[in-house]
Hints:
Blueprint: H1 2-35, H2 40-48
Amino acid sequence: xxxxxxxxxxxxxxxxxxxxxxxxxxFVAIVAYALWPRNKSFFDAAARMPLREx
Length: 54
């Protein structure tokens, strides 16, 4: 039983150690993409889309 608890503790620390930086990196990449000046016209057009009348 003690071995199972040790494996679970190791798996939990491994997930915290590996996945947290990966998800932070993904979040930073998404924010950088959204704030990149080249994408401004695309996002401005998407923001005006609900206000357009066809």
